[in-house]
Amino acid sequence: MSPPQTMRAALLVGHGGPEMLQVRDDVPVPAPGPEDVLIEVSACGINNTDINTRVAWYSKSVTAATSGEGYADADTADSTWGGRGVEFPRIQGADVVGRVAVAGERADAGLVGQRVLVEPWLKDPADPADRSAARYLGSEVDGGFAEYVAVPAANVYPLESDLSDAELATFACASSTAEHMLARIGLAAGESIAVPGASGGVGSALVQLACRRGARVVAIAGRSKVSQVLELGASAVVPRQQPSHDIAAAVEANGGPFTAVADVVGGDAVGGWLDALAGGGRYVTSGAIAGPMVEVDLRTIYLNDLELHGATIYGPGLFANLVGYIERGEIRPVLGGTFALEHIREAQEAFVRKEHFGNLVITL
To answer: What are phi and psi of 111, to 5 degrees?
Structure first.
């Protein structure tokens, strides 16, 4: 059966609060290119990029912590992760799960009808390692908060799993980000790692993936979520209080300085986490929900031979490996709740409040 001409979709019509999201049922269904496939979306996870792009937090003119409301003084010319502006209207949503409805003329026709997980980074097929050419689904191109989305066939991964579509939609962004962070620092068995913000999507994935590598994980999480983080495999969980207490308690729980810190929180605690690293330790960041502007002592970095890493665009092969982990049951979904597409405003507001554990997902 051919897809319809129009579809339901949530359109981001400008920078600002949740009111900038409009759900409509007259949006044209995208036409797949020769090497693309058209996916009928069944579920799409929410991630920080959705919020940060909507509110223009990525702009260098914004120095505050992530907020669910728009930054009135933001420079919209550099309001995406890549330092460019957003073309409105935009359909957000990077964490797509669905079934292939149509294959382009040069795409594999055998994909039609298969349930697939979508890799959200769209890379230059001639040079996938070229980070400067990468685009993000739901940011530079329309994403999955819609009944249909067109993506390159190279970005879809059929998989065998008993997990629900909503559960599968928890993996794409959070787990690939976490795996990339751990790959950047080369985390190995027997090493120790601290994970601030361990109850969120990326944080909960970091705990699981670090344990998969055989590392000792000491996590920081809200008091009500301690038992859930322990169930993911953390060796110790420190209830979140003040940053200085978190760090001191985490070091004590670990029995000494850390080999590594994987941080998506940022803010005032960054300097303390650097102090908590052993000589030659590694710090990696892929987020700054508590604020991007930090104060550090350069002496801590050079006198202790520390390594600092950023992690955003991962290299070839990482996502395929992640699909293998899912199929073999080596990591599990952490589904914090689902919302219908019509309730996407409420879903993003809930995401910003961070009262959930794991990932929130839009279902269609």
So the answer is: -75, -20
DSSP letter at 196 equals T
pLDDT tens by residue, 17-33 = 999 999 999 999 999 99
> What pLDDT digit, counting tens, does each position of 135-176 carry?
999 999 999 999 999 999 999 999 999 999 999 999 999 999
Q: How many Å apart are CA 78 and CA 59, to the nearest integer?
A: 5
CA gap 208, 339 in Å, rounded: 25
**Which residue, among 131, 159, 121, 138, has the nearest Cα to 325 in the 3D structure?**
159
Question: Could you tell me where the DSSP H helices lie in the chain?
Answer: 48-55, 165-168, 172-185, 201-212, 226-231, 243-254, 270-275, 298-303, 318-327, 344-353
Pairing relationship of beta strands 258-263 and 277-285 according to DSSP bridges: parallel
Using an 8 Å Cβ cutoff, are 154 and 125 in contact?
A: yes
Q: Hey, what are 178's tokens?
A: 């976490």
CA–CA distance, 291 with 64 (Å, rounded to integer): 5
Q: What does the pLDDT look like over 227-258, one tens digit per residue?
A: 999 999 999 999 988 888 889 888 888 888 99
Q: From residue 348, give the alpha-carbon distance in Å to each of 69, 140, 281, 296.
A: 11, 20, 36, 32
The pair of three-digit structure tokens given for residue 85, joined into one six-digit string? 């502006």
Token duo for residue 327: 């199929």
Q: Are strands 95-103 and 115-118 parallel, antiparallel or unpaired?
A: antiparallel
Residue 269, phi then psi, degrees to nearest 5: -80, -10
